[in-house]
Specification:
Largest interface: A-B, 19 and 27 residues
Number of domains of chain A: 2
Oligomer: heterodimer
Order of helices and strands of chain A: HHHHHHHHHHHHHHH
Strand content of chain B: 25-35%
Distance between the termini of chain A: 59 Å
Distance between the termini of chain B: 40 Å
CATH superfamily of the largest domain in chain A: MetI-like
CATH superfamily of the largest domain in chain B: P-loop containing nucleotide triphosphate hydrolases
Number of helices of chain A: 15
Structural class of chain B: alpha+beta
CATH class of the largest domain in chain B: Alpha Beta
Number of strands of chain B: 21
Radius of gyration of chain B: 24 Å
Strand order of the largest sheet of chain B: 6-7-8-3-9-10
Radius of gyration of chain A: 26 Å
Number of strands of chain A: 0
Structural class of chain A: mainly alpha
Largest sheet of chain B: 6 strands, mixed
CATH class of the largest domain in chain A: Mainly Alpha
CATH topology of the largest domain in chain A: MetI-like fold
CATH architecture of the largest domain in chain A: Orthogonal Bundle
Largest sheet of chain A: none
Helix content of chain B: 25-40%
Chain lengths: ~325, ~375
């Protein structure tokens, strides 16, 4: 027993045994359900297959949601009911207002810039000989976590006082051509923009891949018909390509918007939300886990939830609609 | 309006040794309706796409009127094309589809509306102008595609199998509509099809292609009466022409008990390469039923009778089993087609004696496949 508990190989063995045991139990339950005959069979099968997932959703998603909403109406230590006070604070406190303003900037700029860059890039590399390599190049950042990207870009943006050796790539370059170094991450409001660029760097690849696939799905004969109708490249792009890929554009824009509303990691790792770079998700984290104000933190969480839901609904509807058009 | 000239136009697809279109020489007169016809892969669509500018010309030239358009962009060629699956813009209404080219050209909105409405009237589309293509039937979509071409009043119409997605009845109907519309508008038209009936019924002239090579150009009557080679003979006409391999001896074409007299001219034009053989072609409608003993008569065993009301066709083979496989037709190996009186069709298994009507047999050299003078 000691062998299993006290070293890594043992831990691994325990993990494997547990996994096998769980699978065996599930298979056994499935087998029993499958053995049932008559009326009980269908409900049993549904319970066996959907039950675990529903249970986990309930524990991991629905219960926390209800509890968060409940906590948002309570005080900092979740002891006294204080009505909408947290919401009022969230909307009026200076720090929150900055968070709202910055999140607004993020949500407007990130989807627009990422989608535009992705679309232009997808159109430019389409049918070119280096298409695959060019795609991989822009898509690579998608493989990096937000935290990883934040750390990389903190180095890129790094600032040392004038006269010192610059370890940030951009400031080193500025230095080498005789320009003064710039405080990218310290000076508001530019610093929020520089943070946004990091997310754009990640999301442009996502936009490009989806839009490139959509562009390739535009029927060739429609393009040819438009060329014969006298359209030049720009008119073709504006009148044929963009309307044809509109559904994909909408999906890309909303997906990036949802990701941006929840942005937390980049601000956290690069500025720690200092220098007026606060955003809603980071504010929620700060209030709940740094300042110990569970009520205000929960209220921020509810705000984010309320902003994300319409986008998700819209996105799901749009996808269903596209399926109708194509089917 | 303008003429169209292919001058040794050649297209070789990258990675392919043989040209898809090989030194095509063809002139289409101003206002003419020319049909390019041939089996699939013969290069007819490629030729059309070269004219449209959608396909590069590797050598040779293409002219519209006097203008060399070989290297001109499709958008600057002033041509309109109707695609096989119509290529309508799915996100635009019928009116916008038809007016798109005019909008690109910067035509005033009022004029676009007026011209679209005129075209819609001609094509019976007036009540559908605000619909999207998705909400139209196949025939209506086809008419929108036609309308899109008409509205522009271009120099040349190009049509790439525009009827192949319609059902049989609508196809026949639309066939005559397109032909009469073209006569009315008088716009030079190049029309691609694989259906020889469409070619015969619609074209002022027909050009038959095979393996990228032009086989023959002529009026429907010329194509039918004097096919230049065995391929054209077998391709034009429905049901297809019967083609038989005969031995030449005593001034006659011989196959088993069949002996068909040949003229001096035909005999003289045979060469050593023909190896004392000749290919005879005779259409199902060039055969008369007759009796045994008539000069040139031969017996046919009936396999099947196809009764169409106005006509009846016998599908059979030469009674002599060994010789039967020398005669083929569109119906398949060792099969021969005979048109008979629909009022008195023979029965399956019967033997009928038939004879080629005077002057209606076609002679081809087996060596070159070319028509022999007669």
């Amino acid at each position: 027993m000691g062998f299993l508990l006290n070293n890594r190989v043992g831990h691994l063995l325990i993990a494997i045994m547990l996994f096998v045991a769980v699978v065996a139990v599930l298979l056994l339950i499935a087998k029993v359900a499958d053995g049932l005959r008559g009326k009980a069979r269908m409900p049993a099968v549904i319970a066996v297959f959907a039950g675990p997932a529903l249970l986990m959703l309930a524990v991991g998603l629905i219960y926390p949601f209800i509890r968060t909403v409940w906590m948002s109406f309570m005080d900092a230590r979740s002891q006294n009911f204080i009505g909408f006070d947290n919401y009022v604070t969230a909307l009026t406190a200076d720090a929150s207002v900055i968070a709202f303003r910055n999140t607004f900037l993020w949500v407007i700029l990130t989807p627009l810039l990422s989608t535009t860059i992705g679309l232009v890039y997808a159109v430019l590399i389409d049918q070119s000989r280096l298409e695959k390599a060019a795609k991989a190049l822009l898509f690579l950042p998608m493989a990096i976590s937000f935290v990883g990207a934040g750390i990389i870009w903190r180095f890129v943006y790094d600032y040392k006082g004038a006269g010192q050796d610059q370890i940030g790539v951009i400031n080193a370059l500025l230095n080498s051509v005789g320009l003064a170094p710039v405080r990218f991450l310290q000076d508001a409001p530019g610093n929020t923009i520089f943070l946004i660029l990091v997310l754009v760097w990640i999301e442009a690849g996502f936009a490009m891949v989806i839009l490139s696939a959509a562009i390739k799905a535009v029927p060739v004969d429609i393009i040819e018909a438009a060329r014969l109708d006298g359209a030049n490249s720009w008119e073709l792009f504006r009148n044929i390509t963009v309307p044809s890929i509109r559904p994909s554009l909408v999906v890309v824009l909303t997906t990036i918007s949802i990701a941006t509303l929840k942005i937390f990691d980049i601000t956290r790792t690069m500025t720690g939300a200092q220098f007026d770079t606060q955003v809603l998700a980071n504010q929620m984290y700060d209030q709940s886990f740094v300042f110990g104000n569970n009520g205000l933190g929960s209220a921020m969480a509810v705000f984010i939830f309320l902003l994300v839901v319409p986008l998700v609904v819209f996105n799901v509807r749009q996808m269903a609609k596209n399926r109708e058009v194509r089917g | 309006m303008a003429s169209v000239t292919f001058d040794h136009a050649t297209r070789v697809y990258p990675g392919s040794e043989t040209p898809a279109v090989d030194a095509l020489n063809l002139e289409v007169a101003d206002g003419e309706f020319l049909v390019l016809v041939g089996p699939s892969g013969c290069g007819k669509s490629t030729s059309l796409r070269m004219l449209a500018g959608l396909e590069d010309v590797n050598s040779g030239r293409i002219l519209i009127g006097d203008r060399d358009v070989t290297d001109v962009q499709p958008k600057d060629r002033d041509i309109a094309m109707v695609f096989q699956n119509y290529a309508l813009y799915p996100h635009m209404s019928v009116a916008d589809n038809m007016g798109f080219a005019l909008k690109i050209a910067g035509t005033p909105k009022a004029e676009i509306r007026q011209r679209v409405e005129e075209a819609a009237k001609i094509l019976d589309l007036s009540q559908y102008l605000d619909r999207k293509p998705k909400a139209l039937s196949g025939g209506q979509r086809q008419r929108v595609a036609m309308g899109r071409a008409i509205v522009r009043s271009p120099q040349v119409f190009l049509m790439d199998e525009p009827l192949s997605n319609l059902d049989a009845k609508l196809r026949v109907q639309t066939r005559t509509q397109i032909a009469s519309l073209q006569r009315r508008l008088g716009v030079t038209t190049v029309y691609v099809t694989h259906d020889q009936t469409e070619a015969l019924t619609m074209g002022d002239r027909i050009a038959v292609l095979k393996d990228g090579l032009l086989q023959q150009v002529g009026t429907p009557r010329e194509m039918y009466d004097t096919p230049k080679n065995i391929f054209v003979a077998g391709f034009i006409g429905s049901p297809a022409m019967n083609l038989g391999q005969f031995k030449v001896a005593d001034g006659k074409a011989n196959l088993a008990e069949t002996h068909i007299p040949l003229t001096r001219e035909v005999l003289d034009s045979l060469t050593a390469e023909d190896n004392n053989e000749i290919t005879l072609g005779f259409r199902p409608e060039s055969l008369d039923t007759t009796t045994e003993g008539d000069v040139g008569a031969f017996p046919v065993t009936v396999d099947l009778v196809e009764e169409l009301g106005s006509d009846a066709f016998v599908y059979g083979q030469l009674a002599n089993k060994e010789a039967a496989q020398a005669i083929t037709s569109g119906a398949g190996e060792s099969q021969m087609i005979v048109r008979v009186d629909p009022r008195r069709p023979p029965l399956k298994g019967d033997t009928v004696w038939v004879k080629i009507r005077e002057g209606e047999q076609h002679h081809f050299s087996p060596a070159t496949g070319l028509r022999l003078p007669s």
